[in-house]
Amino acid sequence: xxxxxxxxxxxxxxxxxxxxxxxxxxxxxxxxxxxxxxxxxxxxxxxxxxxxxxxxxxxxxxxxxxxxxxxxxxxxxxxxxxxxxxxxxxxxxxxxxxxxxxxxxxxxxxxxxxxxxxxxxxxxxxxxxxxxxxxxxxxxxxxxxxxxxxxxxxxxxxxxxxxxxxxxxxxxxxxxxxxxxxxxxxxxxxxxxxxxxxxxxxxxxx
Length: 206
Ligand code: MD3
Ligand code: FE
Fold this sequence. Notes:
Elements lengths: L13 E4 L5 H17 L16 E5 L3 E5 L2 E5 L14 H11 L7 E7 L5 E4 L11 E7 L2 E6 L7 E5 L4 E4 L7 E7 L12 E7 L4
Antiparallel strand pairs: 1-10, 2-5, 3-4, 5-12, 6-11, 7-10, 7-12, 8-9, 8-11
This protein binds N-(carboxycarbonyl)-S-(naphthalen-2-ylmethyl)-L-cysteine and fe (iii) ion.
The site of fe (iii) ion has 3 residues, from loops.
């Protein structure tokens, strides 16, 4: 793996390591994901209002984030198969330990699949029991235009997240408003059919 160089984002608590995963590490992680989705497929959740997300999702780890007519929550099983989520691959547990230094390992990893026009509106992540624990994100595939701004509202900035980039949301950035405006199609050849996968490691449970 290439040495991890952190860049200054100018946004307190938003830490970014461009190219933290080299192309071999990206390909290896993609193989782990293919194994996981064989039993825990991507599906399309709906919002509490009943609108389908444009992003398809699955999860890894003891807990997974789900959304349906009853709301948002973390649960131990896949809502379609009823099975436990597959384990979080060791390489992701190592990244979490090395980059966040958080004393406990993540207990949830949401996996988002973006194809074509998929996007994610501005939101906050606040369904986790301990909102002081960081979130760590790994991007694979086409570059995304990521938008981030203060928790209280106000001006947002846009940041490109490319394949192999890893970012952490810590401290004051943990409750930042953020979303994905769009992809840059054809910017990566990692995924055979194009698109992007984002993995977010979290501490969800108490
Ligand atoms: C800032 N995912 O899964 S990753 C999400 O690319 C989510 O799929 C986006 O937002 C994606 O909730 C963005 C970067 C990211 C992840 C979690 C955050 C930024 C964050 C949590 C708090 C603040
Ligand atoms: Fe989010």
